Amino acid sequence: MNPIAAVILGMVSAVFGGVIRDTLINEIPIIFRKEIYASACLAGAFLYVLLNYFGVGPNLSFFSSIALIVLIRLVAVKYKIALPKITD
Under a CB-based contact definition with an 8 Å cutoff, are residues 51 and 44 in contact? Predict the structure, then answer.
């Protein structure tokens, strides 16, 4: 599969899983409020593809990507970093 397509599909599946969850419990999806988890997933997927391209083992690539995503999310929550909101 094309690496760019893999990154985009990974981000889309991560984001829309949360959208479906929030829609089923009748809440506004987090992606439309303030969270940056889509950007974190995009960065993690890009890191995985990049490490895979340079021949790093699949386990190290996998866990490094997870660590990056978790790190971005933790920093964002701790320092209240968010993307700009869409206003009415």
Answer: no
